[in-house]
Amino acid sequence: MALLNFRRKVDAPSGVNPQLEAFLDGYSIEVMPRTAEKVEDFTALLPKGTRVYVAHIEGTPIEDMVATAKRLASDGYPVMPHFPARIIKDAAMLENWIAMYQGEAGVDQALLLAGGVTKPHGDFESSMQLLENGAFDRAGFKALHVAGHPEGNKDIDPKGGMTNVNDALRWKQRFSDTTDAKMALATQFAFEAKPIIAWVDSLKEAGIDIPVHIGIAGPAKLQTMIKFAIACGVGPSLKVLQKRAKDVTKLLLPFEPTTVLSELAAHKAANPDFNIEKVHFFPLGGIKTNATWAIENGGASAVPANPS
């Protein structure tokens, strides 16, 4: 035991913010098959037990998704593949995907979302319909995550506001109350702590207590960050990036999530009942870049499974 403790102290960077370290403990990260292919060894980057979401972009063959899930599972990581409702044609396809993931990679958790296409490919158009189908319950899935939108979602509320988004969350809360699967809200990324805090508190006031896994964009070039933020429909917090873009001295430097995460961590430390349960990273600047930032800022909570 003493040897293990010594190794952990050596690998963990010194001088980390203890609040941020605690907040990052158990973080998750998102990959795609094409980005995962660029990573030689996940165990040299990610802590043991890190949940890895596998994003399913329209046009990606299910075989590639399953192969990525199998590789990650074989490395010892719990895998949570995306199930985008609008690219799943019917119940038979849904059940086939579930069977493939379970049979090849032992998957028992999923992120259910509408998906980034305008016109559904078949019978499903929302995560609620996937939940109602019951296929995940029949397959014994232990965790079912759904999307959260701290700054709203123009696809759901075209005129702005949060009316339809909040109605959907109330429906999901009722579902959560009647299912054995552990549910969470995996959110879109944002760049300011105060609006995130206000949104999480507003959910609690509305009787929605599904734990929040807050989406955070990992370090990336500012131009890359702005491009993804606009494409993903990030709301008012986009002004944080736009303001930085006006500062020529910072224009070429990578944008890092240190400020927003430190502020959220401090709030969580002062308010233990605050309903952000985990941090979920979108590695917009690359998986290795994101993991390296986490190692440098997460202390003992971010030591890789197989430190070099």
Biggest beta sheet attributes = 8 strands, parallel, barrel
Strand content: 15-25%
| CATH level 1 name | Alpha Beta
Q: Termini separation (Å)? A: 20 Å
Number of helices: 13
CATH topology: TIM Barrel
Please give the CATH architecture.
Alpha-Beta Barrel
Shape: globular
User: What's the total count of β strands?
Assistant: 10
Report the mean per-residue pLDDT as an integer. Answer: 89
What is the H/E string?
Answer: HHEHEHEHEHHEHEHEEHHEHEH
InterPro entries: FAD-linked_oxidoreductase-like (IPR029041)
Keywords: Oxidoreductase
Protein name: 5,10-methylenetetrahydrofolate reductase
GO molecular function: oxidoreductase activity
Overview of this structure, please?
It is a single chain. Helices cover 43% and strands 16% of the residues. The relative contact order is 0.17. The longest helix is centred in the N-terminal third of the chain and has 15 residues, at 91-105. With 308 residues, it is α/β, with parallel strands linked by helices. An 8-stranded parallel β-barrel has the order 1-2-3-4-5-6-7-10. A two-stranded antiparallel ribbon has the order 8-9. The chain has helices at residues 2-11, 18-24, 33-36, 62-74, 91-105, 127-133, 135-138, 163-177, 193-205, 222-231, 238-245, 258-270, 287-298, and strands at 28-31, 52-54, 79-84, 109-113, 143-148, 182-189, 212-217, 220-221, 254-255, 276-282. Residues 1-12 have low confidence and may be disordered.
